[in-house]
TrEMBL record:
<dbReference type="GO" id="GO:0052618">
    <property type="term" value="F:coenzyme F420-0:L-glutamate ligase activity"/>
</dbReference>
<feature type="domain" description="Coenzyme F420:L-glutamate ligase-like">
    <location>
        <begin position="10"/>
        <end position="382"/>
    </location>
</feature>
<dbReference type="InterPro" id="IPR002847">
    <property type="entry name" value="F420-0_gamma-glut_ligase-dom"/>
</dbReference>
<protein>
    <submittedName>
        <fullName>F420-0--gamma-glutamyl ligase</fullName>
    </submittedName>
</protein>
<dbReference type="Pfam" id="PF01996">
    <property type="entry name" value="F420_ligase"/>
</dbReference>
<keyword id="KW-0436">Ligase</keyword>
Length: 390
């Protein structure tokens, strides 16, 4: 019997820069790693590439001035309301700066006690103790400070994000509500800055009578030969790369993953799966932050990664063994049946059937990290093997 199941390797590559041939770098780096470390590549191994290096090679950037111009084209230069931004210097500060440069008045509506990905603007216990009802109560900054004061800071950054976002200009006004329509008391030109709930928020704004409604996915989304763009996600998934530039979420990645799959097959004879991944979909137990600040975990992947796992729960079937025959044989028989008409859904109980790309992308993100490991490529082996595979 094989003694090792799933194995994950962070693959080191050269430092990747604008204009590099990413496909060749990934293929060469994987082949070099498996040769030097005596790893046998197999069918259905998975190669993950972090989205950051894809965008870098594509030169998929926009400048502060690009964002300012687009905001003014859509909203004019008088006022704008920013609804439900996440609390992030990296993800949102430059977008806010552009809004303050584009418009005379900027209104920010914060959700509370946290943004949609779990960055807290206030301790939930303080909200409970104040007897504020977060489902119905809306208010301005003066009442917020009266209720909660200035003592709360972000768990990891130590920043008061209210003060930080206000520091971008005297014309920035802040409000607090979990009802997006509250912003319409102050402006009817709104930019929905939430990520995963953006379509619902846009719909509520239109129903509420807003005059101009866009989301971050609508900014920098049109094809442009002079600047970066992302037709699907616009500014969603963007990252600050300097004081005046944002790196956008990658585009046109399907041809990249398919080309890597094709080259690996040509060289090794094995058909691997390939994906581009961003933030993993997991939650920090201390700060309560849900990591997924990108619009999706994986924007591009080969066809073999479509769908969800089909598994049986080993604990369930072994604990319900009728004590007849040999347990090992009983378990393997039921595992084999998962790919047949005899498959019983209840035997998969508790196996968390999320999308394969969400599970694998989270594994890749945890492996590569966002620091100095130098492993923007990840090789996963044995993920699709089960207990019957020798």
């Amino acid at each position: 019997m094989r003694n090792i199941g799933t194995s994950v390797y962070g693959i080191r590559t050269p430092i990747i820069k604008e204009g590099d041939d990413l496909i060749q770098i990934v293929v060469d780096s994987v082949l070099k790693a498996i040769k030097n470390h005596k790893i046998e590549i197999k069918n259905r191994d998975v190669i993950g590439i972090t989205e950051a290096v894809v965008s870098i090679c594509q030169h998929n950037y926009v400048t502060l001035e690009n964002i300012v111009k687009e905001i003014q084209n859509k909203y004019g230069d008088k006022e704008i309301g920013l609804i439900f931004p996440i609390l992030s210097r990296n993800r949102f500060s430059m977008i806010l700066k552009a809004a303050t440069m584009a418009c005379e008045n900027v209104h920010i509506l914060f959700s509370y006690p946290s943004d949609e990905v779990g960055n807290h603007i206030i301790d939930p216990k303080m909200v409970e103790e104040s007897r504020v009802n977060p489902y119905s109560d809306s208010f301005g900054e003066k009442k917020f400070r009266k209720l909660f004061g200035y003592s709360f800071k972000h768990e990891f950054t130590g920043i008061d994000y209210i003060e930080y976002y206000k520091s971008f200009g005297e014309r920035v006004k802040v409000y607090f509500s979990n009802n997006p329509k509250y912003i319409l008391k102050f402006t009817r030109n709104v930019l929905c800055c939430d990520i995963h709930t953006r379509n619902i928020t846009k719909k509520k704004m239109i129903e509420g009578g807003a005059n101009v409604v866009f989301g971050l996915d609508d900014i920098c989304s049109r094809k442009n030969s002079k600047t970066g763009y992302n037709k699907d996600y616009g500014l969603l998934g963007s990252n600050k790369t300097g004081e005046n530039r944002l790196k956008l979420f990658p585009r046109d990645g399907q041809e990249i993953v398919e080309a890597i799959q094709k080259q690996i097959k040509k060289i090794t004879g094995k058909k691997v799966e390939v994906m581009i991944y961003g933030d993993g979909a997991f939650k920090d137990p201390v700060g309560q932050i849900w990591e997924l600040a990108d619009p999706v975990v994986s924007p591009f992947f080969t066809k073999g990664l479509l769908g969800r796992p089909k598994e049986v729960k080993l604990k369930y079937i072994s604990e319900n063994w009728d004590k007849k025959g040999i347990l090992e044989e009983y378990v393997k028989k039921l595992i084999v049946e998962k790919n047949s008409s005899k498959y019983q859904v209840e035997k998969s109980f508790g196996t968390t059937p999320r999308q394969l790309t969400d599970l694998l992308g989270s594994l890749c993100d945890l492996t590569s990290g966002s620091g100095d490991k130098g492993t923007p490529v990840v090789l996963i082996q044995g993920y699709f093997d089960d207990y019957t595979v020798e």
